[in-house]
Recover the amino acids of this structure.
C-alpha cells in the first residue's frame, strides 16, 4: 500500500475533524435571523378528492404568518415539479407525464402528499395551526401494488393516464431472442419481486430559504446531492427565480443514497413562501416525513428466462418487468427501470440476444426514483438469481457456469446486445479471488458441520456489473436525458502556493475533500494540508452536475485532472521565463519545473507567487494561476466483480446468520483504498438490508404506509452484519485520465443476489426478499416436508 | 417558562424553556450545541446520544427539566485542551464515519460501552451498538474503531 498522501495511499480524511468534534454544519444547524418555521400538512389518505380546504382558523392561530395551498401556488405559477428524462414507448409515443403539483389541488394521491404549508414564528405554532386546517376529503379507493394498478378496472391515479400506465418500453431484439429460446436445450425461469426500499439517509431532508429584497435574490440551503441541478430546475422549470438570482447551498449533508438528488415540493414551497412573506423560512423534515415522502427505491415485479445450450452457454435472455413509480414521477424516475436497468441485463456474460420489456405505472404510494444503484441492482438481481437457477436446473456448479459465460479479458471493449460497450475487466480473476478468500473449496466441510448441528448452510455468488459516471452527454441526451452529464473542476492557486479546488460534485459522506486533495497533491506537489476542497455552493463553484451514479471521481476527478493539466501548461511558461529557458525544454514532475540537463528548477509555489506578483513575467501572459476545466466522459465506466455470501440458517427459527462475506471489486485504479473499502462496506450493508430486513409495506385496502418508522421498517444494525472481507482487482478504465471506475454503489448492487443465492442454496427453494425469519422458516418447513 | 440549569461540558448552563422542551432541543436550540443530532422521531437512531452524569442517554427521550442539575457531556465536550478523546481519534484513524451525521451519537454510545465493558469483543460491540443506526459504513469500521479505542482507553 502506498505511503504518504499520494495516489493509492489510505490517507485519513481531512473532513473528519469537524464531524468527530460536533462541528459539522448540517442543514438544521443553520439558522437565519428572523426565520419562520414551515410545517407541511400532509394527506392522511392514499387517494381522495379535495372538495375544499378551509384555512381560516389556522390563519388566525397564534404565531401564524401564512397558510398557503395549492390554489395559491398555481395562481403564482410556481411549479409543477418535473421529471427530467423522456422515454419513448414501444409504440413511438412519449411516456405519460401527469402533472405533479407541489401542493395538491383537486386530489391527493398518496399518504404524505402535500396539502398545505403553514408558516409560523415557531414550529410548535405551525404544527398547532396545521391541526386547525379543515380539508373536505372525499375518499377514493386506492391501488398500491403495480400488478393491480396495471390490471383492468384498477382505480385511476390520474384521470388523464389511462390504465395507470406511464410507459410500455422495450429494449433489445425480440425476434432474435425468441428464436434463440425456441432452439434452446434448457430454459431457466424465475419470477421475482424486487422489494421497495426507503433510502433513510440519517440526516432527514431539510430546507432553509432566505430572500434578500434589496437585491431580489433568493438563497436556498438544502440537503442536496446536486445543488446546481436544483438551481437549474427551480429556475428554468419551476418559476422560482432567474438562475442568476437564486443561490443554492448544500452544506454538510448527512447521506444521500439517491434520495437527495431530486427536487421536491418542500424546498420549492419554502423558496416561494420566503419571498411571499419576506422572511427566511425553514423546514426540517421529521423521520416520519422521510418515510412517507422521500423518493423510495426499487419496487419491481419481474419474470425472467434464460435460454442455455447443452454445455450451459447462455443463448438468450428474456425479461418482463413491471415497475412502480408511485403517485407521481420524481425527477429522474423514468430512467431508472429503463435505461439504467435493461442496459445492464447482459451482466458479465456473452449472452448474444436479450429482450427486455418494462411497464412503468402509477399507484397511490410515494414516488419511486433512484436509490443507491438505481436500476443496476435490479438488473444484477435478475441476472444473478437466474444464473443460479440455471446452474441448479442443469446440475452445473454455479461458479463453473459463470466462468463458461464470462466476457473474456481480451474481448474488451465489449459490445453487449443492450446498448452498453464495456470498457475493461477481468471477471474470472475477481471470481477466483473471491472463492479463495471465502475458501469455497472448504464449503462442503462447513456445510456438513452445520448440518451436524441441525443447521442449514448455503453459499451464494453474485458476479455483478454496474455502469458508473453516466455519459457521454450526447449519448444520454439521445436516450432522453434532459441534462448534460459532464462535470467541472477548478484549481485555484493562492499567491502563497496553497490551493482551493472547486468541484461540481458533492460530498455527503464520500470523502471528496480528501480524495480530490490527494489527486492534486500527488500531481502538483502541493502538501495535502495546503489544499482545500470546496463544493456544494452555486455561489462559488462554476457549475456542476452533482454526485450520484458513482460519478464523482470518474467524471469530477477527471475534470480536476484536466484543470491540473492547464495549470501545468501555464506554469511551464512562467517557469521557463524565471529560468530563462525555452518552454519546450521545461519538464514538470510533482510541482517541480526543471530544465533538462541543467540544475535549474523552480517550484510551483514560486510559480504561483510570480503569477500573482508578475513583476518578472512572460510578455503577453495573463496573471493569476486559476484554471477551470469541464470534462464530458467518452463512455460509462463498468466496475464489476464477485461477491460471495455464506449463510447459516436455523430451520427451527428461520433466522439467517450471515456467516462470511467475500467481496472482490474491480474499480480500476484506486486513489484512496481506505475510502473505497468504506464505500463497499456501506453498500453491502444496504444490500444485506434489502435481502434480509427492509421492506416497504402499504396496506392494500387503505393505502396506509405500514412501515412508517424505525419500529416498523427494519434498518440493519451492527449486530445484523458480519465484518466483510474486501479486496479489489484493478483493470484501469481506458477512457478517463485517472483510469478509475467508481465504487459507491457496487456493494448495494452485488449484495442482494449473493445473499439470496446463499439462502436459496441452503433452503433448496426459491424465495423473495426480504428473507425474514418467518419466510425462511416457512420455506424450511416445506422443504423438510418434501424430503 | 421555567429556568432549567445544568452543567454542560463543564460549564454552567441555564435557559428559560417551555416545560415540554427535550434535552436535545435544549442543547441544540438554547445552547447552540448542534453537534448532537436528531435523526428520527421514535428514539431509535441514536444520533442524539449524550452523557448525563456519565451514562449514555438518548437526549430526545429526556426532558431538559429531567436533566436539571445534572452534568451533561456532548460531543463538543470530549476533546480536552485540543486533545481528541481516544474514541474520536479511533473513528478518524479507522474510517469509522462517512457522512458524519450519526457519528456524535455513535461516539458517545461507544465511550459508554467501553466504560461498561473495558475489553469488549466484536460481538459485544455489535450488540451494544444496537441502539445507534448508521446508514453509511455498514458498521465494519465503526466496530474496528471501538475495538481500537477500547485498547487505548484501558484503565
Amino acid at each position: 500500500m502506498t505511503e504518504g498522501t499520494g495516489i493509492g495511499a489510505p490517507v485519513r480524511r481531512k473532513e473528519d475533524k469537524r464531524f468527530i468534534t460536533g462541528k459539522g454544519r448540517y442543514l438544521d444547524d443553520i439558522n437565519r435571523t428572523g426565520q419562520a418555521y414551515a410545517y407541511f400538512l400532509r394527506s392522511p389518505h392514499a387517494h381522495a378528492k379535495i372538495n375544499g380546504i378551509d384555512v381560516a382558523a389556522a390563519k388566525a392561530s397564534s404565531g401564524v404568518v401564512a397558510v398557503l395551498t395549492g390554489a395559491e401556488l398555481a395562481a403564482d405559477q410556481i411549479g409543477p415539479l418535473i421529471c427530467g428524462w423522456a422515454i419513448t414507448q414501444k409504440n413511438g409515443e412519449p411516456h405519460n407525464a401527469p402533472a405533479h403539483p407541489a401542493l395538491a389541488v383537486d386530489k391527493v394521491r398518496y399518504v404524505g402528499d402535500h396539502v398545505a404549508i403553514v408558516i409560523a414564528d415557531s414550529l410548535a405554532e405551525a404544527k398547532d395551526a396545521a391541526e386547525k386546517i379543515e380539508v373536505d376529503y372525499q375518499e377514493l379507493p386506492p391501488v398500491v401494488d403495480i400488478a393491480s394498478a396495471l390490471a383492468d378496472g384498477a382505480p385511476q391515479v390520474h384521470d388523464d393516464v389511462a390504465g395507470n400506465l406511464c410507459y410500455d418500453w422495450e429494449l433489445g431484439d425480440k425476434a432474435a431472442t425468441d428464436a434463440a429460446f425456441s432452439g434452446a436445450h434448457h430454459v431457466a425461469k424465475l419470477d421475482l419481486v424486487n422489494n421497495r426500499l426507503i433510502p433513510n439517509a440519517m440526516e432527514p431532508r431539510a430546507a432553509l430559504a432566505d430572500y434578500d429584497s434589496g437585491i431580489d435574490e433568493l438563497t436556498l440551503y438544502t440537503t442536496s446531492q446536486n445543488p446546481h441541478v436544483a438551481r437549474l430546475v427551480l429556475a428554468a422549470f419551476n418559476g422560482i427565480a432567474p438562475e442568476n438570482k437564486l443561490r443554492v447551498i448544500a452544506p454538510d449533508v448527512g447521506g444521500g443514497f439517491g434520495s437527495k438528488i431530486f427536487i421536491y415540493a418542500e424546498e420549492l414551497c419554502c423558496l416561494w413562501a420566503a419571498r411571499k412573506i419576506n422572511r427566511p423560512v425553514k423546514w426540517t423534515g421529521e423521520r416520519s416525513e422521510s418515510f412517507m415522502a422521500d423518493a423510495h427505491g426499487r419496487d419491481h415485479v419481474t419474470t425472467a428466462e434464460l435460454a442455455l445450450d447443452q454445455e450451459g452457454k447462455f443463448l438468450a435472455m428474456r425479461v418482463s418487468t413491471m415497475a412502480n413509480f408511485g403517485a407521481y414521477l420524481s425527477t429522474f424516475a423514468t430512467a431508472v427501470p429503463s435505461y439504467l436497468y435493461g442496459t445492464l441485463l447482459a451482466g458479465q456474460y456473452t449472452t448474444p440476444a436479450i429482450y427486455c420489456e418494462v411497464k412503468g405505472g402509477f399507484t397511490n404510494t410515494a414516488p419511486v426514483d433512484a436509490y443507491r444503484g438505481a436500476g443496476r441492482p435490479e438488473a444484477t438481481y435478475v441476472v444473478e438469481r437466474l444464473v443460479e437457477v440455471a446452474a441448479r436446473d442443469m446440475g452445473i456448479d454455479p461458479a463453473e457456469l459463470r466462468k463458461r459465460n464470462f466476457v473474456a479479458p481480451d474481448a474488451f471493449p465489449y459490445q453487449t446486445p443492450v446498448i452498453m460497450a464495456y470498457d475493461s475487466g477481468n471477471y474470472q480473476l475477481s471470481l477466483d479471488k473471491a472463492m479463495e478468500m471465502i475458501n469455497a473449496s472448504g464449503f462442503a466441510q462447513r456445510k456438513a458441520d452445520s448440518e451436524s448441528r441441525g443447521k442449514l448452510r448455503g453459499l451464494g455468488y453474485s458476479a455483478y456489473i454496474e455502469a458508473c459516471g453516466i455519459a457521454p452527454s450526447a449519448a444520454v441526451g439521445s436516450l432522453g436525458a434532459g441534462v448534460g452529464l459532464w462535470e467541472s473542476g477548478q484549481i485555484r492557486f493562492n499567491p502563497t502556493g496553497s490551493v482551493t479546488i472547486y468541484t461540481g460534485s458533492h460530498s455527503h459522506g464520500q470523502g471528496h475533500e480528501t480524495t480530490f486533495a490527494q489527486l492534486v497533491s500527488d500531481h502538483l506537489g502541493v502538501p495535502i494540508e495546503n489544499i482545500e476542497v470546496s463544493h456544494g455552493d452555486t455561489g462559488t463553484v462554476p457549475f456542476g452536475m452533482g454526485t450520484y451514479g458513482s460519478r464523482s471521481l470518474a467524471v469530477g476527478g477527471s475534470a480536476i485532472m484536466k484543470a491540473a493539466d492547464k495549470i501545468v501548461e501555464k506554469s511551464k511558461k512562467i517557469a521557463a521565463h524565471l529560468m530563462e529557458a525555452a518552454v519546450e525544454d521545461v519538464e514538470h514532475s510533482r510541482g517541480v519545473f526543471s530544465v533538462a540537463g541543467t540544475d535549474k528548477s523552480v517550484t510551483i509555489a514560486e510559480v504561483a507567487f510570480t503569477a500573482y506578483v508578475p513583476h518578472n513575467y512572460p510578455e503577453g501572459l495573463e496573471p493569476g494561476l486559476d484554471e477551470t476545466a469541464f470534462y464530458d466522459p467518452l463512455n460509462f465506466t463498468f466496475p464489476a466483480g464477485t461477491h460471495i455470501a455464506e449463510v447459516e440458517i436455523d430451520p427451527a427459527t428461520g433466522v439467517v446468520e450471515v456467516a462470511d462475506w467475500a467481496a472482490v471489486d474491480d474499480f480500476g485504479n484506486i486513489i484512496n483504498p481506505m475510502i473505497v473499502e468504506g464505500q463497499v462496506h456501506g453498500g453491502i450493508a444496504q444490500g444485506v438490508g434489502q435481502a434480509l430486513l427492509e421492506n416497504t409495506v402499504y396496506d392494500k385496502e387503505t393505502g396506509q404506509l405500514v412501515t412508517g418508522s424505525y419500529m416498523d421498517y427494519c434498518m440493519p444494525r451492527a449486530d445484523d452484519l458480519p465484518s466483510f472481507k474486501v479486496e479489489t482487482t484493478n483493470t484501469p478504465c481506458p477512457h478517463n485520465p485517472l483510469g478509475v471506475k467508481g465504487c459507491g454503489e457496487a456493494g448495494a448492487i452485488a449484495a442482494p443476489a449473493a445473499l439470496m443465492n446463499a439462502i436459496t442454496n441452503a433452503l433448496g427453494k426459491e424465495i423473495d426478499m426480504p428473507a425474514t425469519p418467518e419466510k425462511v422458516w416457512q420455506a424450511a418447513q416445506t422443504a423438510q416436508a418434501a424430503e | 417558562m421555567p429556568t432549567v440549569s445544568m452543567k454542560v461540558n463543564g460549564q454552567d448552563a441555564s435557559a428559560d424553556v417551555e416545560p415540554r422542551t427535550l434535552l436535545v432541543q435544549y442543547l441544540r436550540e438554547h445552547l447552540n450545541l448542534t453537534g448532537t443530532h436528531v435523526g428520527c422521531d421514535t428514539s431509535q437512531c441514536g444520533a442524539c446520544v449524550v452523557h448525563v452524569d456519565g451514562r449514555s442517554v438518548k437526549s430526545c427521550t429526556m426532558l431538559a427539566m429531567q436533566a436539571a442539575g445534572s452534568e451533561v457531556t456532548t460531543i463538543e465536550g470530549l476533546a480536552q485542551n485540543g486533545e481528541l478523546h481516544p474514541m474520536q481519534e479511533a473513528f478518524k484513524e479507522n474510517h469509522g464515519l462517512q457522512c458524519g451525521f450519526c457519528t456524535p451519537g455513535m461516539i458517545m454510545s461507544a465511550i459508554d460501552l467501553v466504560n461498561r465493558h473495558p475489553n469488549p469483543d466484536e460481538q459485544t460491540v455489535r450488540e451494544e451498538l444496537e441502539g445507534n443506526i448508521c446508514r453509511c459504513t455498514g458498521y465494519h469500521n465503526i466496530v474496528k474503531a471501538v475495538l481500537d479505542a477500547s485498547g487505548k482507553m484501558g484503565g
In short: Chain B has a mean pLDDT of 97. Chain B touches chain A through 55 residues (CB under 8 Å). DSSP finds five helices and five strands in chain B.
